[in-house]
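Researcher: Next sequence.
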Amino acid sequence: MNSRWLYGIGIAAAGIFSLFFIVKLDFRNAVLGMTALFALTNSARAKQFRGQGMVREARWMQGLSVLFSVAFAVILLLRLI
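Model: Next structure:
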């Protein structure tokens, strides 16, 4: 399967997950979904920038993606404890 499709499905799933929990007023799970959404979108943008030859911007987006991935792991760990 194409990686663009996988990114799209992941972004859509994280967005729907976040929106669902925002409507239910469960903000702990909504924040978890939003951090996953930010990590996926920044990773997709980094890949797109790298493909366009914008190396500095790609590194910046990849760094943000790593930051949000770490934040996702920490939030998930705190939710499980």
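Model: Residues 28 and 79 are 8 Å apart (CA to CA). The chain has a mean pLDDT of 94.
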